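Q: I'm a student working through a structural biology exercise. My instructor gave each of us a protein and asked us to get a predicted structure, then write a short paragraph describing it. Mine is Probable sodium/metabolite cotransporter BASS4, chloroplastic. I'm not confident about reading structure output yet, so if you can add a plain explanation after the tokens, that would really help. Here is the sequence I was given:
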Amino acid sequence: MNQSCQCQSPLHTLRHRSCHLRPVWWPRAPASPSASGSRSAMVTHHPSLLRAPIPTLRSGVLGRHRPTLLNAFLSTHVACATPPTPHLRLRPLRATAGAGGASPVGGNGGKLAVPPPALGAALLGFARDNFLPLALIGGIIFGLLNPTLGCLANQYSLSKYSTFGIFVISGLTLRTKELGAALEAWPAGLYGLVSILLFTPFFAQFVMQVQFFPREFITGLAMFCCMPTTLSSGVTLTQLVGGSTGLALALTVLSNLLGIFIVPLSLAKYIGTGAGVSLPTGKLFKSLITRLLIPLIIGKVARETSKGIADFVDGNRQGFSVASAVLLSVVPWMQVSTSRSLILSVQVKAFAVAIIIGVLLHLALLGFNAISLLILSRLEQKGESAFTKKEYGRAVILVASQKTLPVMVTVVEQLGGALGESGFLVIPCVAAHVNQIIIDSIIVNWWRHKDQQFTNAE
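A: Happy to help. First, here is the predicted structure for Probable sodium/metabolite cotransporter BASS4, chloroplastic. I'll explain a few features afterward.
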């Protein structure tokens, strides 16, 4: 049989009508003169390759002639002039980084690479994490720039309502179950209370020995030593470092409640004697009870009597923390506004020295509490005590070394200028309050870094 084309693929023969299939058992025909120079080949194909990927192939034809086509596909001798169709190869697609681009698949198990946060998001996160010191600094700056509104707020005694609101929020956010969890750490809690109310106020004697002008700066820092612990920052930092939140809350609440009775006595002993004045102890008792204890009880009762209020407060703790910081910043804003002329008369060098003294004071309190806990842990050799547990020790060191600003401001207002200008008394304490939060935040980050290294080593 004469062929007009040569095909080496059996599937290719279906696309050309001029191609003919010749089984191997047929008699071989002599080659035509036109194709005498061409080669004839016997092509054998495996049955698994018998597929019909051609869209124009009708399944009916294969269905009627399946045995014939099968025999033809198994072994054929095809002569065709058309060259064989090249095989298509699919290469895997690979994500390549072009100019300025990057592969979406990183080396972290196929996860998409997370882009670095934008500058606006980073600033917003910083402001959210450090809202309290920023609010205090903002209140001071605003009072220095525009004292008119601060003086007007002072005329209407806005500080009384802001302090009342701070302790109402403290009562609303106080959880009873977290206080009960601190019962097993009562030895560490007992030391914390003694340190806050008895040991750290003793440092006021050393501060009063510093000769400095204006004298109110030193007097204010000495008064700051006699205050109870902070209302929120100590608990927040303890929670961040993985310490005992229940113990931190217990120390915060009990020290502020007992401080209502002990703070006036400490001030009279360490400050009033050196200043040569008699403090109105009875008036201080009454003021602390009406402006601290009563609002705290109101907030706690509202939380315990209404589950809806408790759920709302727990679901919006960040908002209540922001509200408490705003109310707290109202107090230094008013004090700075009313004392702006006196503050501007103070040299920058004197103010910087007062800040340094406040920093050294807080470092001294941290060192005292850390060394005391270390000594107590060595004295008790029977098993694992409350002083040797890391979560209890960190809670005590942080909470017992901080001092609260709202109680300090309340005391200064009740003194009525008996120990000097109110603005000068409060300004170094505001700086000391901000500094202790910054220093303790650095310590907390250091502790967390050490814990992470220890976990990775295991």
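A: Here are two points you could use in your paragraph. Strands lie at 43-44, 75-76. The longest strand covers residues 43-44. It's a good idea to check both against the output above yourself.
Q: Great, thank you!
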